[in-house]
Amino acid sequence: MKTEVNGERMTDVRIGEYLVSDIMTCVGKKSAVYLRKFERVHEKGCSFNWCAALFTALWFAYRKMWKAAAAIMGFNVIYTMVLSVLENTMLTADNALVFMSAAAGLFVLSMIVFGLLGDWLYSRHINAILDEQGCRGRRAVQKDALMDSLQKAGGTSIKGMVILWAASLVLQWAITWLIFFLLQAV
């Protein structure tokens, strides 16, 4: 069976139980790249995503994974609060190098973890959207309403990424300022 996606004829090719054409429609931008990554995740269980590693919450927001983006942002806020308190209460010339090394080490470790999990989480996110739209195991028949729905549910969101970035900056600034103010009062 054949179907059309972006004007190209596609066959009934699948990754797992989902049509490649449905995955491509849902992913939107860079769908060919993510098809290779999803195949690797499906076959080997892992793939490394440099954008997820370097931009963490922003990449998750860009790919419309709102829960993961919010969780990472929450972690970053807590991490910033803890570092701010430690910096203002415990940092001395003697332990500054240890403190900065530990903070940098945790940052690099989180980048590696998000890089390793990014494609796997994104594949699960796309599969969940496809399941919601009834695409698991479906026949390769073009349905315009389904394609429109997949494009809307999937894809990318620059607006969401910018909003998350701005909210993160404001929240981290406010928390840092609040901690500094409270520590000065003590």
Explained architecture:
The protein is mainly alpha-helical and 186 residues long. It contains 7 helices and 4 strands. The protein has a two-stranded antiparallel ribbon with strand order 1-2. Strands 3-4 form a two-stranded antiparallel sheet. Strand 1 and strand 2 (8-11) form a beta hairpin. Helix 3 crosses helix 7 (158-185). The radius of gyration is 21 Å and the shape is elongated. The model has no long low-confidence stretch (mean pLDDT 86).
How would you concisely characterize the structure shown here?
By secondary structure, this protein is mainly alpha-helical. It has helices at residues 20-27, 31-44, 50-62, 66-89, 96-132, 144-153, 158-185; strands spanning 2-5, 8-11, 14-15, 18-19.
Going by helix content, strand content and strand pairing, the class is: mainly alpha
Total E-strand runs: 4
- Overall geometry comes to elongated
- Report how far apart the termini are: 72 Å
Report strand order across the widest sheet: 1-2
What fraction, in percent, of the residue positions are helical? over 70%
Main sheet makeup? 2 strands, antiparallel
User: Any idea what the radius of gyration is?
Assistant: 21 Å
* Strand content range: 5-15%
N-to-C SSE series?
EEEEHHHHHHH
The mean pLDDT is 86
Our count of helices gives 7
Low confidence ranges: none
